[in-house]
Amino acid sequence: MMHVWIDPGHDTEKAALLEAALAPLRVHAPNTCAQLLECLDTSNGTSIADLQAITATAMDGGETMASDVLLSLLQSLGAIGALRFGSADRTEAVLTLWPMQPDLLPTMDLAIEETLTYRLSRFATLRREGSRLIIERPLSGYRAAIRTDTVTGAKLIALFTEGTTVAGLAQGRIPTAQRAPICAMLAQAGIIAPQDENGLLPEDKDDTLRQWQPQDLAFHAHSRMGFANDPIGATFSFKDEIYAQPALHPEPDNLGRVPLLAPELNMLAATDISLTQAMERRSSRRPQLRRALTLAELGIFLFRTARIRSHFETDIGSFTSRPYPSGGGAYESEIYITAQNIAGLRPGFYYYAAATHELLLLREWDDDCASLAQDALTAMAMTSAPDAVLTFGSRFQRMQWKYAGMAYATQLKTTGAAYMAFYLAATAMGLSPCGLGLGNAATFARLTGQDPHFEGSIGEFALSGPGDA
Ligand SMILES: Cc1cc2nc3c(=O)[nH]c(=O)nc-3n(C[C@H](O)[C@H](O)[C@H](O)COP(=O)(O)O)c2cc1C
Fold this sequence. Notes:
By secondary structure, this protein is α+β, with helices and mostly antiparallel strands. The chain has 2 domains: 220 residues, no CATH class; 232 residues, NADH Oxidase (3-Layer(aba) Sandwich), CATH 3.40.109.10. The chain is 33% helix and 22% strand. The strands form 6 sheets. The protein has a 7-stranded antiparallel beta sheet with strand order 2-1-3-4-8-7-6. A 7-stranded antiparallel beta sheet has the order 11-18-17-15-19-22-21, sandwiched between helices. Strands 5-9 form a two-stranded antiparallel ribbon. Helix 2 runs antiparallel to helix 3, helix 10 crosses helix 14 and helix 12 runs antiparallel to helix 15. The longest helix is centred in the last third of the chain and has 22 residues. InterPro entries: Bacteriocin_Proc_Enz, Nitroreductase, Nitroreductase-like, SagB-type_dehydrogenase, ThcOx_dom2. It comes from Shimia marina.
């Protein structure tokens, strides 16, 4: 039998939480509220049957709103993330489920089809959170925890991976009374679903769901508000524990410096095409016949788009300003240039020192440079690689230190904003720009020698000299 209990979180008293939730309901059904308070202020949980018995008796006794009051109470506790449903009481439950969206409650009268075989959704994700094993199907609005002090929970997952009926859970020694509640709770949370004679779930036959990859769905669900109640936004979770990464990227060890041309902005402003012309002429160019990009052009291009305009300190750390916008002003990405065919520049892998506007040679041209250039060539379906590939190398912790949930998604958005700045500047300069959708993070890690958790490639942009397309 499904049970329910209250998990008030760290700093809150259960009784105080219950009082606050019941206060507005007392006027409608005072006796019901008194009994619910007594019943729910236990640590081990209350069976749904007991709660329903309270409301049934109260309604017989004239409190006609008793069941509405119970529903409102559960909804308000669920909305603040304090409600837990168990497949048994708290000490015995193999499965605990809770809603993560306001107004979402599992159905109390659990009906499960005994003849059907249920199977794990391919979208289900499993992870450890503290000492709990969490399983969820992103976007369902629910999350579940599986008991780990015995192996029963692990068996549960194995059985549902293969597909099992309610009765089949006996193989995992799941207690008889918990089998149907477990199935019903997992089904409501979208973690399992009935399979057909071919082992397919409804999601496997749905044209919309078939096209989602599990990792994309999890990323989407967790980087947006609405379907989960995890902390999201500027939470500064590590403020008191870890130093923030500085705005200025430490200068990497290098084999030499190449000063870049810094254009006079007044001159550019006087001679540039208009914004409308740049917007309308902008296109992705993959010219076969072209002249090589020059070092002077690369210098002007980087100055216009990616240089550090200023550096300043604030209460929450150091920041820079650059021509393109950046989520949170973090400017977590630096530009690395794989230069294959730039007139006046030795082929190799360079770091753009945005504060001093110069290139630092990190690697002479080698197999990894060739591999990175080859990946760009493949992505662009060209016969010769672009003159330069600009890679965005992100220092992830610049964003993670401040933001929860949205840290990675925001970096991709910032990269998109930089792409547009790159496109417009290249168009104004008559160069050949092309955004790239894919790059190899392992090749980049080899080229920089950086821990890929610390600094990794998140975007690439091809740049060539003027050409025929
Ligand atoms: C994020 C992003 C990724 C892209 N990836 C590639 C790519 O891998 N290969 C390619 O040839 N073009 C790529 N492009 C260019 C698009 O194909 C191009 O923008 C689109 O077809 C519209 O054409 P237009 O840019 O000429 O207006 C990409 C563009 C963006 C914004």
